[in-house]
Amino acid sequence: MASSDSLPLVFSAALTDPGRKRALNEDAVSQTLMPYGGIFVVADGMGGHRTGEVASQMAVSQIVEFLKREEPSPQGLLEAFELANEAIYLAGQKPESRGMGTTCTALWLDLPYALIAHVGDSRAYLLRDGELTQLTQDHSWVADRVRQGLLSEEEARNHRWRNVITNALGSFPQSKVDLVGLRVQPGDVFLLCSDGLSGVLEDKVLAEMVNTNPPEPAVAQLVKLANEWGGPDNISAVVVTVGSQLPQRTRPYALPLHTEGGPVRLQSGTDPEILTTQIAEPVKKPTFWGRWGSLILLGLWFALLGFVLLNQFGHKGTP
């Protein structure tokens, strides 16, 4: 689908499938194009007795309906997640709904900017110039161990606790949301997916599919390949391709960046001022002096010390 402008800003497609091992599909997806870009969401529910299905659908519908009424901003995206978290948490207090929760990853395209909010182990990727980058960090037991250096990526992919997540909408009274922002370039492609896709297909396969196909055949091929590789879980994918021309405009907010230390993580009740004081520029790579300057100074210091000691010992040894 494309926007109604003569030069479409965005093309997108979304697809969800139960996979081959699950009778029920507890994933939910949504795509909504807007004049400024669009709203795209993937959620992967958890909980027995169909509560996972209810949780994912609640998250998607509440977030999309709220954002459709709002002017794009980091504060608005965080508030949408907070409201969804509150609704799911309250619904999960019923005895029959214990354990109800859902992952959720949302892309709010406000061209030429992109805002991404994330909870759980569903993911957002960016394909730019043929290179696929994972924009989100998994909130899972194995991902935590990988970041700590205790597990390799391959060990995490096959670990028996790979499906244990550490953060979900509805699990706690207050949400903890990762917020990522970046400036979009013409031709950028975003992929949102549940772990039923990313946990089965390697990143190089994901990159090839979204790099060589428009959104609709891309999501179809991704789901097909995940099923061919066993389809052990529900599979969801949303592919969003940005057009060749972007609006030249600025926004009243600054971007919360995905820094070298990872995404900005915000908790419910965060002071909105924090969101507007982030620097809306990419993280600069260290300059040559910034990277090597301290080592050069340290080397010069040791050289000077050695020169002084050499002269002292030389004088002592002179008859």
UniProtKB/TrEMBL annotation:
SUPFAM superfamilies, sorted: PP2C-like
Domain of life: Bacteria
Keywords: Hydrolase, Membrane, Transmembrane, Transmembrane helix
Cell inner membrane recorded as keyword: no
Gene3D superfamilies in the record: PPM-type phosphatase domain (3.60.40.10)
Transmembrane portions of the chain: 289-310
A GO term for molecular function: protein serine/threonine phosphatase activity
PPM-type phosphatase domain boundaries: 11-242
Annotated InterPro entries: PP2C, PPM-type-like_dom_sf, PPM-type_phosphatase-like_dom
NCBIfam families: Stp1_PP2C_phos
UniProt name for this protein: PPM-type phosphatase domain-containing protein
Species of origin: Meiothermus granaticius NBRC 107808
